[in-house]
Request: fold
Amino acid sequence: MVWYGMVWYGMVWYVWYGMVWYGMVWYGMVWYGMVWYGMVWYGMVWYGMVWYGMVWYGMVWYGMVWYGLVGLVS
Reply:
């Protein structure tokens, strides 16, 4: 009876421990997914800023060239 109780308790402990461990793995996956998603989103924002900066810089450069041509013609 004591032995049976120990085995049953051990099984419950094992299942509980497995659930906790599985929960930790699942939580880790979710957290990792959030970090990965954050990196992708941050990368998109950074890329957008760089792209916007390039376009804005290109507009300024184009404006300088255009202004220089107008000044040269006149």
